[in-house]
Amino acid sequence: MGLKHALAGLACAAASATAAWSTCRWAPAVNASALLDPGSPELGRVFGLVGEFEAPFVRGVGVSSGLGVTRDGAVLNYTTGTAAQLHDFSAASKEGFHLALAARCIADAAEALGGRPRASAASDPGLQLARKELLRALCGWPSSGSRRRTAQAAGYWVATLGAKLDSFARFNSSFPGFGGYLPWFSVPANNSGSMGLLQGWENRVPALDNGELFWGVVAAGQAARRLAGAASEAPGFESAATEAESLAARLEAVWSAMAATARTLFWGGAESRGAVFAVTTIANVSLPPGQSPVSGSGRLDDPYEGELFTWVLDLLTGLDAAEREDLWLAKRPQLAAVPYRMPSQLAAQGAAAPDTVSVQRGFWFSAHEQMKGLYLPYTDASLVPTSAKVLRACEVARAADSAARRVPGLFASVTDVAAVPPSDLLPPVIPGYISAAGIAALASQPIQRRDVVTPYGAMAMALVAPREAAVWYVHTLAATAMQGPLGSTAACNVNGTEIAPVATWDSKSSTVLGFLGGVGDLTGEALAALPDTGGATKLDRFRAVTEREMQRVFGTTVPGSDLPIALPTAAVPRTEGLRDFVTC
């Protein structure tokens, strides 16, 4: 049985799932306290709804169907919440999200065929069941749960990733100088043709976004490898195994080729003592790397999502021992602990419970900065316990800040809000972007905005405290016009008068991926199969360095990391000037 014959069946399954719910405005009816109860089915119900109403973006307007590549997002009609204008551009980071979600779907299909199940959290089996509900709706699985039908529906993901890799190959053939990495690029409006060069990025390429792309490719390749193995053991699925094996080989070839050019494009050389360029300019992108001069600008030395590219250089580019260590020495000044004193009304009671939390200092302390946890196993407490504690401590502080100050949501870098236009006949409003949103006491840089909250402020929390994250996420979705036919809206202001009228990969799919636990298990599995020095594996290297660097700053206990996550204490008010989308 082939996987690619399931597209029609997938469409029917998606239509059936959508018909099961009459409204996309479900958040106000959620029982928030039940989300925290391991014995309640409410988390599974909510996760199923999240998957159902995010699917039209993840499997629809967020992807160019002909090319298989992402669109950054869409501008929304203020009345209907439908896409008024699709973005004609995208970036490597959006590709990373798409690949990672595809990886989770493909890995779940492998499990449905009898493959090795993902390790579950025995302390919360309800969370694992809820994740299954999210995957069922998001991935397009049939409600019957038949392994044959699930494997058929996985054909959508195999075919889409195949189209994506075809698009990547055409782009790389036209512009080999990028070395397999992606600049911000244009996407044709008619879903045909090819990816193109975007103005301002004709010969420039960023490392940070490409770190997310790189590990998304690795995760998707490992998931395809799982599917190939499961299908080969299931009678009647021989052609499915062949297709999955082919996809796995193609994905592995892509990340191997990217690893081969990483040093040339982004490393400052041994004399730079660990410099990683934030953006590289290539003199002639028509020539392969090494045949045209390159120059780097900025330094990618942060301990946040930019660290994903540091791991590409450390693990997969053949640097010697001293050069690898220089990468981490160069980053050390940026990794710092900040004491956060719990607000008096939230402070833990009792002598044994600390009222100060040891928090990793942020740049702005935007939730966006913790996206590295979506791609590599930073939150695996059995592998890197100190890292997991530090990331949870950050979420203790993030939630406490908003709860104590009665902020009706969480902060992350996001598209700005815009006033309601007097008429939908006017061109769509395209707001600017808010970068400096966060918590001043925990940031190294000045904070400029704290008047806009976003559902994806709960993204990092979803990795370490998914039930509490679900409460914050649903709480923000309950605000006016924060839910529509494309799922969650990007953001709203705390006064309830304006929304950010867009749907984007960053503000939507990051949280969905967080609720699914990220893809660290898949990338970790891939690294465990690769040898490093001294008989160790690449995963051993990740474990050793991550724990060493975290323990150097935080010790091993990380005070306050086990404190409860505070819950919302205020809601976004409903106002006369803003209405829910009429489609809901």
From TrEMBL:
<dbReference type="InterPro" id="IPR058773">
    <property type="entry name" value="SGL_GH162"/>
</dbReference>
<keyword id="KW-0732">Signal</keyword>
<feature type="signal peptide">
    <location>
        <begin position="1"/>
        <end position="19"/>
    </location>
</feature>
<feature type="domain" description="Endo-beta-1,2-glucanase SGL">
    <location>
        <begin position="70"/>
        <end position="584"/>
    </location>
</feature>
<protein>
    <recommendedName>
        <fullName>Endo-beta-1,2-glucanase SGL domain-containing protein</fullName>
    </recommendedName>
</protein>
<dbReference type="Pfam" id="PF26157">
    <property type="entry name" value="SGL_GH162"/>
</dbReference>
